[in-house]
């Protein structure tokens, strides 16, 4: 008999056909006359109820081993369920316990566990409803990202993870080296990077943008989607040291085109989640973030709001009593300010544009005012920034001057400057933090719970 998943079986008609189901026991319940196993294989949130009526001694002994967490194979007939709660069930006649999970030692018992506790057993947490649902939503979103760009003629470019250039110019990079640090320290000698693996200092990338721009200036519409690394000491519910980022880049596009693309993109992802992850989103709505589904539906219904940074700061200054950090022009806005703007002013996603150049990266296009750049951040309720992007500086002289002003290593960016030396064009792009997207569509509160194995300061377990 062909093995079907719980999702496939529960989509069938309960016409009495024979089925085999393999998965893990979520719960075992006993009544005077029957034993009930709820079996889950992760193919969907819902379990498949398997009912063993009046089991004989052999079956009863096997059932006694089928506690929470055990892996099992059940054979039976698919019939309508007489009880409320499920449309169908398996009237089981055979059971094989494949691997037991002793109740004394298996950490995931039937009771609800805190997310903090589950973080300590990240290797077992995918077996819970919450983490199964997060994994399925994450998967669907990753696929939807490719669908969105492929349907619009974007080329997927694989940018490197090891790099010698600091894209954001913020110096928050992890170094990659094969030098023997212990030996070096003992010798007391200065580091000679010509002896290092790459013959010079190398790092894990903070962004694929600079590399993807090179393909943009040849293939017009491109995107990269991969892991990025930040060595900032940010211990928050919104920051990871290793996270995934989606970065589209479009030639001949200006900031307004960039924002249009970002809005269409985010709406496409929300629409897909509502349509294809309905069971999981209903679970998040019920257990994690009440009102989630309605708020996501509302996002689709109207255009995102827009405001300049300067306008936003004026508004924040009028409401200064709400904030721990007092707002002023030039401040790199904190999440408390971003949340206030979305939740209290815009009532939904909000694009902020034209930030002071001092708080943004060197590559952003300079405005005529000499103070601001063609940057845009998309802010959302609950946690603030979900997307950061800009129009890029396409003027060679201005870009060179900015690199010099900031004291960056001009030589290291020489290849990047070539894009302005030869056939320069206006172009724009942005980065969507994949885990921030998953926070957004699931309503989960901590970014460490939407990636399988989170990396953060002092945290690299598993
Ligand atoms: O605003 P950021 O730093 O922009 C860039 O990296 C640009 N190179 C993007 C581009 O224009 N191509 O990061 C982009 C997004 C943020 O808006 C946020 O969603 C996410 O990446 N992000 C993080 N997510 C998790 N943990 C962190 N430490 C993050 N830092 C940024
Ligand atoms: Mg940013």
Word description of this protein:
- This protein has 462 residues and is an alpha+beta fold.
- It folds into two domains: 6-99, OB fold (Dihydrolipoamide Acetyltransferase, E2P) (Beta Barrel), CATH 2.40.50; 126-449, Bira Bifunctional Protein, Domain 2 (BirA Bifunctional Protein, domain 2, 2-Layer Sandwich).
- It is built from 14 helices and 16 strands.
- The strands form three sheets. It has an eight-stranded mixed beta sheet with strand order 6-10-11-16-15-14-13-12, sandwiched between helices. Strands 1-2-3-5-4 form a five-stranded mixed barrel. Strands 7-9-8 form a three-stranded antiparallel beta sheet, with no helix packed on it.
- α4 (129-151) crosses α8 (278-287), α4 crosses α14 (434-442) and α7 packs across α9.
- The longest helix is centred in the first third of the chain and has 23 residues, at 129-151.
- The model has no long low-confidence stretch (mean pLDDT 96).
- Bound molecules: 4-amino-1,4-dioxobutan-2-aminium adenosine-5'-monophosphate and magnesium ion (MG).
SSE inventory with pairings:
Layout: H1 6-10, E1 18-30, E2 34-40, E3 48-53, H2 57-64, E4 71-80, E5 88-99, H3 115-120, H4 129-151, E6 155-156, E7 162-163, E8 175-176, H5 181-187, E9 202-204, H6 209-219, E10 221-229, E11 242-251, H7 255-276, H8 278-287, H9 292-301, E12 305-308, H10 309-318, H11 335-346, E13 350-356, E14 372-380, E15 384-391, H12 396-405, H13 414-421, E16 427-433, H14 434-442
Parallel strand pairs: 3-5, 6-10, 12-13
Antiparallel strand pairs: 1-2, 1-4, 2-3, 4-5, 7-9, 8-9, 10-11, 11-16, 13-14, 14-15, 15-16
Helix pairs in contact: 4-7, 4-8, 4-14, 7-9
This protein binds 4-amino-1,4-dioxobutan-2-aminium adenosine-5'-monophosphate and magnesium ion (MG).
4-amino-1,4-dioxobutan-2-aminium adenosine-5'-monophosphate (4AD) binds near residues 239, 386, 387, 390 and 436.
């Amino acid at each position: 008999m062909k093995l079907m998943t719980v999702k496939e079986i529960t989509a069938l008609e309960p016409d009495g056909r024979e089925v085999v189901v393999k998965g893990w026991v979520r719960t075992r319940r006993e009544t005077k006359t029957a034993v009930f196993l709820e079996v889950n294989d992760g193919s969907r949130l819902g379990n498949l109820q398997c009912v063993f009526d009046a089991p004989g001694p052999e079956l009863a002994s096997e059932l006694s081993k089928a506690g929470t967490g055990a892996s099992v194979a059940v054979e039976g007939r698919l019939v309508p369920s007489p009880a409320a709660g499920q449309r169908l069930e398996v009237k089981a006649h055979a059971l094989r316990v494949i691997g037991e999970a002793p109740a004394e030692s298996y950490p995931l018992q039937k009771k609800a566990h805190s997310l903090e506790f589950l973080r300590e057993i990240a290797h077992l947490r995918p077996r819970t409803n919450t983490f199964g649902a997060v994994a399925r939503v994450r998967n669907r979103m990753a696929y939807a990202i490719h669908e969105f760009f492929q349907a619009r003629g974007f080329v997927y470019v694989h940018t490197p993870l090891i790099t010698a250039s600091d894209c954001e110019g913020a110096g928050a990079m992890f170094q990659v080296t094969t030098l023997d640090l212990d030996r070096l320290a003992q010798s007391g000698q200065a580091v000679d990077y010509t002896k290092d693996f790459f013959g010079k200092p190398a790092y894990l990338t903070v962004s694929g943008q600079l590399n993807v721009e090179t393909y943009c200036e040849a293939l017009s519409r491109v995107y990269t989607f991969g892991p990025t690394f930040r060595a900032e000491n940010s211990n928050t519910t919104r920051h990871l040291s290793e996270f995934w980022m989606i970065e589209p880049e479009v030639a001949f596009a200006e900031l307004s085109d960039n924002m249009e693309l970002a809005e269409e993109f985010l709406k496409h992802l929300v629409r897909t989640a509502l349509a294809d992850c309905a069971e999981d989103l209903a679970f998040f709505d019920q257990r994690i973030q009440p009102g989630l589904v309605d708020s996501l539906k509302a996002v689709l219904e109207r255009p995102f709001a827009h405001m300049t940074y300067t306008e936003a700061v004026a508004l924040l200054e009028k409401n200064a009593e709400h904030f721990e950090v007092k707002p002023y022009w030039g401040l790199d806005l904190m999440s408390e300010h971003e949340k206030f703007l979305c939740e209290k002013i815009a009532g939904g996603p909000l694009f902020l544009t034209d930030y002071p150049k001092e708080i943004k990266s060197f590559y952003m296009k300079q405005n005529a005012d000499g103070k601001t750049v063609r940057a845009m951040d998309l802010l959302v309720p609950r946690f603030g920034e979900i997307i950061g992007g800009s129009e890029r500086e396409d003027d060679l002289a201005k870009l060179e001057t900015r690199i010099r002003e900031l004291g960056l290593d001009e030589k290291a960016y020489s290849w990047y400057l070539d894009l302005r030396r030869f056939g320069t064009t206006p172009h724009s792009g942005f980065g969507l933090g994949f885990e921030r997207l998953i926070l957004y569509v699931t309503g989960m509160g901590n970014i460490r719970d939407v990636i399988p194995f989170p990396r953060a300061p002092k945290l690299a377990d598993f």
